[in-house]
Amino acid sequence: MIRIEAVSENTLIIYFADSIQAELSVFIGVISQQLKNELGDKLIEVIPSYTSIFIQFDILRIDLPTLSKDIRAIADTLDTEPDYSVGKLIELPTWYHSDVAPDLKAAAQHSHLSVEEFISIHSNKEYRVCAIGFAPGFAFLGSVDSRIELPRHDHPKAKVSRGSVGIAGLQTAVYPQDSPGGWQIIGNCPLSLFDPDKEPMTPFQVGDKVRFHPISKSEFLAMDGQIQQENQ
Amino acid sequence: MAHGLKIIKAGFQSLIQDTGRYGVGHHGLSQGGAADEHASRWANHLLQNPVNAPVLEIALGMAEFIAETQMTIAITGADMSAEINGTPIHNWSTHQLQPNDRLTFQAARSGNYAYLAVIAGFMAKAQLGSCSTVMRNNIGKKLEDGETLEVRAEHCYQSDIGLMTPFRFIPDYTRIQPLTAIECYQNSLFSHDLRAKFFNQTFTVSKQSNRMGCQLEGPRLNHSIPDQPSEGIACGAIQIPASGQPVILMRDRQTIGGYPKIGCLTRRSISLLAQCRAGTDLNFESVTREQATKEWIRFERYFAKKTEAPCRSSA
Fold first, then answer.
1. Which ranges constitute the DSSP H helices of chain A?
2. 8-state DSSP, B226
């Protein structure tokens, strides 16, 4: 069921499916961990994503045919129907308010919902971390209820504030640091989601579960949440 | 007081680099590392340094340094007409600096990046297992005029070293054709005609090129292959977005992406491409992964085992 393809001298990619299925990330998360545990320092980099795991290996320690055989053996020992209760649950306190979410009102309008309904739909679902990338600690979460699906901005914003909770298509995510970005911003999470000096530097791993939890302005400020000028 | 190499002029962009930051890609952190692995490894090799010793990567030149203490250095990569106290010195060689010696680099005559190494490496702060600067991840920073690069004072000078890279290992950055690429990733989704176009026609390095990626101008490879679910990106991956303009992803690339990829540059060619100026003509030749792998294993073993000593400098 898995497809292993060579990429370059010391990289390969394992494909698990051709299209995105949020639940697949549970299996991909489990097997990524298993590969690291069993193959240790033969692997230099293991990057799980929506439908694949990219691997950079140490060419002086293992060759492609041997590694492919090892990967198949490890994949075969794992249940193809993983226990969907696995993956830790991460709660993200979020203040949904136009003071920190420049697109919230327009987004609700676009979806023909009241702001309250919009917030309740976004915060009443458990999401899965499907991939981490774009920026350090940026976790792509799938998938939002189709009633709150939103297009990306036509022109990306030069600066999206740290903590911004965005939606693009059926995906939602938090910007861990100030960065350019084109997602529609509907809230802000005051937690630090990327700190290279901390262990772990980000709470997210592919396969984890994430839930947004609405908080008030005073709770937001008590957690050191920042209201940046340009949002007001 | 810190002793080391004082930066009088940092030039266009001077960064501390080593072989890169590994094992953190799943958090979305870029690998970074010296843009030209061939030249940077030679700089360390000439000094018998560990492969991973931090070196200074000087982009485009116009940089100037003063030694605050005695040290043995090596310079490799782009030819920036380096001088010590106004006297021209050989590139791809080791040199001795005495206290107050002035080391200068002019604008690069060819290539983009020169490497400056010191015995035992520059003392830089390692973050997540590497000293490589990745500005887009806010790890490390662009060096500024007036800073001092610290050296390991007791170990950084060896009076009897005088070595240079053998000529056959010194590339001519104005004549690097063709670059080699492995056909992989979504290669089979591209039509036969588009693949032939990529491997038969001439492209030009665009001005929009940096440590993250190299954009190519010239023939457009327009296609209607849909974007793929984002997946891990190898160094050298050749993305063809819908605009048809290829982008080759380099050391500071993002970790995942969904544009269709027609192949991946070989490791040797990635180093050469990093040295190509905007406007350089490029042709690509298809090689098998096996062929490229053999070559890369030879390269890795050469620097890992130090079997072949660099030759004595004539200077």
1. 24-39, 64-77, 104-110, 115-123, 217-222
2. P
Q: What is the pTM of this model?
A: 0.92
Check CB contact under 8 Å for B23 and A51: no
* Residue B307 confidence (pLDDT) above 50: no
Give me B266's structure tokens: 């070989």
Q: What confidence tens digit (pLDDT) does each residue in B118-155 have? A: 999 999 999 999 999 999 898 999 999 999 999 998 89
On whether the CB atoms of residues B245 and B28 are closer than 8 A, the answer is no
With CA atoms as reference, report the closest residue to B211 among B161, B249, B178, B183: B249
Chain A residues near any Cβ of chain B (below 8 Å):
5-11, 13, 19-20, 32, 44-56, 59-60, 64, 131-138, 140, 177, 194, 196, 201-202, 205-206
Instruction: Measure the CA–CA gap between A63 and A60, rounded to whole angstroms.
Output: 8
Judged by CB atoms closer than 8 Å, whether chains meet at B25 and A6 is answered as no
Asked if A72 and A161 sit in the same domain, the reply is no
CB contact under 8 A, A134 and B236: no
ipTM rounded to 2 decimals: 0.94
* Interface test with chain A among B19, B22, B24, B26, by most A beta carbons within 10 Å: B26
Domains of chain B with bracketed CATH:
4-165 (no CATH), 179-302 (2.40.100.10)
Same domain for A95 and A47: no
Domain that holds residue A16: 3-77
Chain B closest-CA separation from residue A187 CA (Å): 22
DSSP B49: -
Q: Do A13 and B26 touch (CB under 8 A)?
A: no
Q: What is the pLDDT of residue B64?
A: 98
Could you tell me if A107 and A219 lie in one domain? yes
Name the domain count of chain A.
2
A138 shares its domain with A226: yes
Helix (H, G, I), strand (E, B) or coil at B173: coil
> In terms of domains, do A18 and A128 share one?
no
Is residue A170 included in any domain, yes or no?
A: yes
